Amino acid sequence: MIQLHDKFFKPFLSEKQIQQAVFRIAEEIALDYKDQTPIFVGVLNGSFMFVSDFLKAYQHPCEVSFVKLSSYQGLTSTGIVETLLDLPENIEGRSVIILEDIIDTGRTLQELVHLFANTNVKEFKIASLFYKSEVYNGEYVIDYFGLEIPDRFIVGYGLDYNELGRNLKEVYQLNQKHMINLVLFGKPGAGKGTQAAFLKEKYNLKHISTGDVFRYNIKNGTALGTLAKSYIDKGDLVPDEVTIKMLEDEVEKNPDADGFIFDGFPRTAAQAEALDNFLESKDMKINATIALEANDEILISRLLERGKVSGRSDDQDVEKIRNRFDEYNLKTAPLKEYYEEQNKFYSVDGIGTIEEITSRLTKVIQGL
User: Fold this and answer.
1) Are 202 and 292 within one domain?
2) Residue 324 annotated to the active site
3) Are 187 and 321 in contact (CB under 8 A)?
């Protein structure tokens, strides 16, 4: 694993695999052009290593020149191809073979073809070391290619990430981060908030508490907050689609998170299914549902102590606490069954020191 700027990359193609591909292209082109003197035109900056090794492998008369085009910034193509170094002048009546490091969408290739459109070359061929066939638009024939590869962002052997990595002898692929999305269950007093704070720091997760999200939207008078308040003021339940939309907004606001902790949602199997559908649309999923389990009497003691500090009336009345426990049991049972069917339900002992409980949770997450 290597790091370039803020990204990590893992090995993809060895030096040996790359060199074999280079020699194979050189042999194929030699069969067609060994009795001529073709002009090889390398496309800078990415092709400089490929061109160098290709020319060493091509043991026949030839000339070489370069053009320079650019369409990438960071990890993505801008879609706008700039010509930074123009065509050589002595190409009229000659066989020209473009040497590209990689062909993916075909935008750069299209610009190359346009560059040669008004020249009187004898013939014009395209050779690429790497070829992403699944994203190539197919507009032009690729005459020679070394390796067909999947649509992954790669660096090394001339290819870069924000100008770093070109000098690597091997090729590396972007190490896509593995997102961890958790649903955290627990009766009042089980320590969900405390543990969520530790987990979000340890794994760079965003803690989404439904209660906090509702309060934020209502307090700030957002469209969703106003809509939710209209139901609450009438004594009605806020529809699932409103809650889901609030959660969607929270996910959208945190693109750099390595995952999310959903706390207080879902509360029903229907909500769990709605959450699954939303996450699937983002190419994400719930990895685990973790329930912090604790003896009711211990939790009652915790809540009564908390009530002395929080001032919450429902933390100071044993009968109200037991009613909250009954409501939790009633609502959690179908959710437990829903996630057990997906093999995603984990029960964690919530009794012990904060560190001990964190350690148990960490063990579950590491196992994912």
Assistant:
1) yes
2) yes
3) no
Last residue of a domain, one of 174, 201, 233: 174
Domain final position from 108, 141, 174? 174
For 350, the token pair is 């919530």
Using CA atoms, how far apart are residues 84 and 70, in angstroms rounded to an integer? 7
Tell me if 261 sits within 8 A of 182, measured CB to CB.
yes
Active site residue 322: no
Task: Quote the domain boundaries for residue 282.
Answer: 182-366
Give strand pairing partners of 343. Answer: none
The domain that holds 348 is classified in CATH as 3.40.50.300
**Cα 172-176-182 angle, rounded to 5 deg:** 160
Select which of 306, 336, 344, 360 is catalytic. Answer: 306
- Catalytic annotation, pick one of 206, 324, 331, 336: 324
In CATH, what number is assigned to the domain containing residue 44?
Answer: 3.40.50.2020
- Annotated catalytic residue within 7, 132, 187, 192: 192
- Catalytic annotation present for 192: yes
DSSP for 208-236 reads EEHHHHHHHHHHTT-HHHHHHHHHHHTTP
| CA-atom Rg of the chain in angstroms | 30
Q: Single out the residue of 40, 96, 36, 88 nearest to residue 60, CA to CA.
A: 36
Same domain for 13 and 154, yes or no, is yes
pLDDT tens for the 368 residues of the chain, in order: 788 887 778 899 999 999 999 999 999 999 999 999 999 999 888 999 999 999 999 999 999 988 887 554 444 443 444 444 456 677 888 999 999 999 988 877 888 888 877 788 899 899 999 999 988 988 889 999 999 999 889 999 999 998 999 999 999 998 766 778 999 988 888 888 889 888 888 888 999 988 889 999 999 999 999 999 998 888 888 888 899 899 988 888 887 788 999 988 898 888 899 899 888 877 789 999 999 988 889 888 888 888 888 777 777 888 888 888 888 888 777 888 999 999 999 999 988 888 998 899 989 988 87
**Which one of the listed residues 122, 285, 312, 322 is annotated catalytic?**
312
Based on the fold, state whether residues 41 and 169 are members of the same structural domain.
yes
Number of domains in the chain: 2
